[in-house]
Specification:
Pfam family, one: CsgG
Helix content: 10-25%
Number of helices: 5
Protein name: Curli production assembly/transport component CsgG
Number of strands: 15
CATH topology of the largest domain: Rossmann fold
Organism: Salinibacter ruber
Order of helices and strands: HEEHEHEEEEHHEEEEEEEE
Keywords: Cell membrane, Lipoprotein, Membrane, Palmitate, Signal
InterPro entries: Curli_assmbl/transp-comp_CsgG, OMP/PagP_B-barrel
Number of domains: 2
Oligomer: single chain
């Protein structure tokens, strides 16, 4: 049976994915006595509800308990109770009173409370809903399905304060995404003249918000520990192991600094110079002859970036243009094109391209005779940057001619056009 339809016994809580990397840091020379008075939700947001109202909060209100657990597991901190300090002092008063009552002046005093070397402050300061959302679906003959997804994110800030001077020694922050997905399918059909069948099924997945907050807090404690070692605030027993951890952390932090608000890894040096593109593809002639067929082509292009988003190019394409059994010619097309990149610093970006030029037939290319046509159109595609200097691209292309003579026939009121696709690899010098 599917586990979703079974009850389960209570079990130890699930650890976050960062927990192991937090607890396996090099050991400290001496744990730091640490106090946490309150680590609370500062967003003030309530849980979303389609209808009616609710007083449930969007994120957990147990941030203090989660942080105390992370500090205890990290081995670098020695947490002391401050959240329930009034309860603690009241219980100590009860113990002191009972000892005095039964032992009189011989009563042993209680051990003094520990005082903290540092005070941890901060909280859950951000919960952003629908950072990215989308979906898709299809339906054919009353049978179809759909899927939706939504991404939220929670942000945690943590700072260490010296109890001797009140100086803020270190501040760190972490962000964790929260994914929700839903898939569903349905079908409606007449299975008999008087019998109508309707069926549907679906499943949804929602990443637990409490675990997301736990992971963000664990990551913040780990980050605070590593930066404390780096800046000399905390002392490890194994300096060589600590140095290796710090180096890996610096690399990951440098990479994190190149991410945008949606978590995409940016490459600010993309397309730094003149690009040489080699590619190929195919086209289908929409003209006045019958029997359209797919014909191959090859492309050589130069592309000069004008800005991060715009590039000017010169493209030469050699290929076949024809229709089955009626027409076939080898042509050369030379075009100037202007390309717009939607996300120029991302590894993957869609683009739009406008192009115009001339197409001529062999064996006399570039001669403006009855075998030449002016053409123009555009492309929509995407480019994936393997590294800042090397990109792979694919596009859907449409070209219209200024006359109706590309296929040597002039029939009807519509000019000839070419529809096709292309792919290429570009090296930017």
């Amino acid at each position: 049976m599917d586990p979703a339809f079974e009850t389960r016994d209570a079990h130890p809580g699930i650890e976050s994915t960062v927990h192991d990397s937090m607890t396996t840091l090099p050991q400290p020379a001496s744990p730091v006595v640490t106090a946490v008075y309150q680590f609370r939700d500062q967003t003030g947001q309530y849980k979303r509800k389609e209808r009616g109202s609710t007083f449930s909060r969007a994120v957990t209100q147990g941030g203090t308990a989660i942080l105390m657990d992370a500090l205890a597991d990290s081995d670098w901190f020695r947490p002391i109770e401050r959240k329930g300090l009034s309860n603690l002092t009241q219980e100590r008063d009860i113990i002191r009173s009972i000892r005095q009552q039964y032992e009189g002046n011989q009563a042993q005093p209680l051990s003094p409370l520990l005082f903290a070397g540092i005070l941890l402050e901060g909280g859950i300061i951000g919960f952003d809903s629908n950072v990215i959302s989308g979906g898709g679906g299809f339906r054919l003959f009353s049978i179809g399905g759909s899927g939706e997804y939504r991404r939220n994110q929670v942000t945690v800030y943590l700072r260490a304060v010296s109890t001797q001077t009140g100086e803020v020694l270190k501040t760190v922050h972490t962000t964790k995404t929260i994914i929700s997905q839903q898939l569903q399918g349905n079908a409606t059909r007449f299975v008999a003249p008087n019998l109508f069948l309707e069926a549907e099924a679906g499943i949804s997945y929602n990443e637990p918000k409490t675990l997301a907050v736990t992971e963000a807090i664990d990551a913040a404690v780990r980050q605070l520990t590593i930066e404390g070692m780096r800046d000399g605030l905390f002392s490890p027993t194994d300096t060589a192991a600590a140095r290796a951890v710090i180096e890996r952390y610096e690399e990951s932090k440098a990479k994190a600094g190149r991410r945008d608000y949606f978590g995409r890894l940016l490459q600010p040096d993309n397309r730094s110079g003149l690009g040489l593109e080699v590619g190929g593809g195919g086209n289908v002639l929409q003209g006045d002859v019958q029997g359209s067929s797919l014909n191959p082509s090859g492309t050589l292009a130069l592309r000069q970036p004008l800005s991060p988003r715009w590039a000017l190019g010169l493209t030469n394409t050699v290929g076949r243009v024809g229709a089955t059994g009626d027409f076939g010619e080898t042509v050369l097309a030379s075009e100037l094109d202007l390309t717009y990149y939607f996300a120029p610093r991302a590894r993957f970006t869609p683009f739009l391209q406008a192009a115009g030029g001339i197409v001529t037939q062999f064996p006399e290319p570039y001669r403006l005779t009855n075998t030449a046509s002016i053409l123009g159109g555009g492309s929509i595609g995407a480019e994936y940057m393997i590294n800042p200097d090397l990109g792979l691209s694919a596009a859907f292309d449409v070209r219209y001619t200024a006359d109706d003579a590309l296929d040597n026939e002039d029939v009807g009121s519509f000019n000839d056009s070419l529809w096709g696709g292309s792919a290429g690899i570009t090296y930017y010098f």
